[in-house]
């Protein structure tokens, strides 16, 4: 079904972009990964090997097909590495990726080009040159994976890991909402869901900043988001068939209520953090006063 493109010059006059932290339909955290277009080209570049393979002798045929498979695997790993990097960049507190996908993609690229450059005459110079160039150019184009944790100093690793697992599970619910609302075929509804997701993402960042907040927010990350996802799936299927405006109004009201509750809970978490900070400051001041240390 054709969809109108929303924007300043569209009939609805909307020029409100989606919230920065909301995931899009591809599951990336609020924006396309850097070098995403070049990553897609990696899936196209090996295609000539499939064509030329069938004009060669059996050994050449096998080498080209193996090279094609390796290069496609390299493209997949690179794209997944860019997604992981985008999620890492979107968070103030993040662990480095467990699997360095971009580095693995560069190694597979070099290996694939080396296999494609193998002539079968026993010479290793050409494959070696192709392999080294492939690795170097891949690293220059896409960079390396994040190699260190970000913003995790002074934070209990067990608590931060609990938060990471809870947020990852909650983000799966948000991604499922994005996928489901696409079936409704209405860009304004897609933007409304993105706005709600931006509010939820704000809560995510608040919890990541202080893992102690997870206890007060767990119900929101699991029960409420799961309900929002299920409601979105059912609404999208119904609205795609019937265009029921009453159902649409009820769904938008549900999102309004959920968004208000998530915002209120986030403000409460921030308020609790401020209270904890004030207590720590007063304790330190009292201790300094007892030790006779006073500002001039």
List the helices and strands and how they pair.
Elements (H helix, E strand, L loop, with lengths): L35 H9 L2 H7 L4 H33 L10 H16 L8 H18 L14 H26 L4 H23 L4 H29 L2 H46 L6
The outline comes out as: flat
Largest sheet: none
What structural class results from the helix and strand content?
Answer: mainly alpha
- Tally of domains: 2
Task: State the helicity in percent bands.
Answer: 55-70%
User: Uncertain segments of ≥5 residues (pLDDT<50)?
Assistant: 1-31
Spatial separation of the terminal alpha carbons: 73 Å
The overall pLDDT, averaged over residues, is 77
Number of helices: 9
Residue share in β-strands: under 5%
Order of helices and strands: HHHHHHHHH
Keywords: Membrane, Transmembrane, Transmembrane helix
Transmembrane segments: 39-55, 61-78, 99-118, 124-144
Protein name: 5-bromo-4-chloroindolyl phosphate hydrolysis family protein
Region (Disordered): 1-32
């Amino acid at each position: 079904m054709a969809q109108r493109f929303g924007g300043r010059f569209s009939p609805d006059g909307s020029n409100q972009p989606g919230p920065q932290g909301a995931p899009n339909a591809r599951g990336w955290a609020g924006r396309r990964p850097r070098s995403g277009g070049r990553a897609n080209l990696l899936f196209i570049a090996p295609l000539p090997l499939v064509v030329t393979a069938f004009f060669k002798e059996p050994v050449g045929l096998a080498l080209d097909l193996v090279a094609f498979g390796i290069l496609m695997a390299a493209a997949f790993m690179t794209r997944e590495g860019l997604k992981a990097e985008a999620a890492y960049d979107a968070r103030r507190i993040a662990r480095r990726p467990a699997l360095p996908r971009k580095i693995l993609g560069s190694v597979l690229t070099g290996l694939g080009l080396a296999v494609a450059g193998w002539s079968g005459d026993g010479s290793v110079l050409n494959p070696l040159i192709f392999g080294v160039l492939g690795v170097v150019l891949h690293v220059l184009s896409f960079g390396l994976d994040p190699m260190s944790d970000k913003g995790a100093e002074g934070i209990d690793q067990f608590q931060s890991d609990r938060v990471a697992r809870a947020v990852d599970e909650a983000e799966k619910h948000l991604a499922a909402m994005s996928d489901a609302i696409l079936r409704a075929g209405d860009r304004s509804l897609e933007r409304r869901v993105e706005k709600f997701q931006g509010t939820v993402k704000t809560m995510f960042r608040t919890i990541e900043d202080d893992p102690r907040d997870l206890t007060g927010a767990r119900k929101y990350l699991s029960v409420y988001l799961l309900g929002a996802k299920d409601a979105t799936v059912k609404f999208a299927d119904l609205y795609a068939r019937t265009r029921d405006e009453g159902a649409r109004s009820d769904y938008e009201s549900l999102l309004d209520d959920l968004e208000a509750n998530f915002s209120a809970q986030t403000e409460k978490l921030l308020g609790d953090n401020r209270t904890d900070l004030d207590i720590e400051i007063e304790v330190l001041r009292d201790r300094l006063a007892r030790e006779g240390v006073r500002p001039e």
